[in-house]
Amino acid sequence: MIKIVLYSILLTITSFTLYAQKTIYGVVSDSSGLILEEVEVRTMYFSDSTVTNEMGEFQLVVPDSCKTLVFSFGELTHVEDINERKVINLMFTTGGKSKTMRSLNPRKDYPFGVQLTLAAHSLFAISVNYFINQNHSLEVGVCGSGWEIGARRYFSLNDYGRNKALYLGAITNFSLEGDFAIYIPFGYHILTQYGMAFGVEIAGKTPLYAHEYLGAINYFGFGINFGFQF
User: Fold this and answer.
1) Contact present, 58 and 52 (Cβ < 8 Å)
2) Strand, coil or helix: what is 29?
């Protein structure tokens, strides 16, 4: 009987030790004092994680045995020892880079942009775009054969900076003679936290006299995009 009681006490103590938790609070900013939203904060060797809110704040419940937090955004990572602290305010530096990061989520924070497209549906196109949200954009511009209007859907490849994505679009190219073609690009897009954009794409395109061949894609092409979001 005594052994059973002692075993029960030991099991209770062990369970309490294993499941004892503590809450860590804090604010994350960059070296210029700009708060950083959606920075991932996770525990090392445990599965607990969260992201900072629009005020740069985070709250994370971690096991009492957890000794280290890992902060990540973009391709940058910082490891911070807890050292019995319950409040950790982190100033995240950019590793000596000369430019201060403009945004953690540029498609969300800098929706307006300009871009130059080479090749694609005509020799060139200069357009302005607007991100309705981080996954959808609209664009309108002029091109080598007239003007264009269209939309793109982005599929993020990056959980942290959300700056790398695949996309699928539908662009209508209106010629000076009044005819039109439909350009359907599929590509890879990079939008850095500094606002610079680059993309490469392959695409199908209807003939210029598209009203005579509705839905008929007669060839594949490619395009290269350069741009800036602000």
Assistant:
1) yes
2) strand
pLDDT over 70 percentage in the chain: 77
Burial 74-85 (b: 16+ CB within 10 A, else e): bebebebebeee
Residue in 175, 185, 186 with CA at minimum distance from that of residue 211? 175
Q: Enter the tokens of residue 122.
A: 């005509």
pTM of the entire predicted model? 0.57
Q: What is the CATH number of domain 106-229?
A: 2.40.160
Query: Is the pLDDT at 24 greater than 70, yes or no?
Result: yes
- Which positions ≥6 away from 44 have C-beta within 8 Å? 66, 67, 68, 69, 70, 79
* Helix, strand or coil, per DSSP, at residue 12: helix
pLDDT band of 136, cuts 50, 70, 90: very high
The rounded distance, in Å, linking the Cα atoms of 136 and 198 is 17
Helices (H) and strands (E) in the chain, counts: 2, 15
CATH fold for the domain made of 20-92: Immunoglobulin-like (2.60.40)
Give the domain ranges of the chain: 20-92, 106-229
pLDDT of 156 higher than 70: yes
202-230 tens-digit pLDDT:
988 876 554 454 444 557 778 999 999 98
How many other CB atoms sit within 10 Å of the CB of residue 21?
11
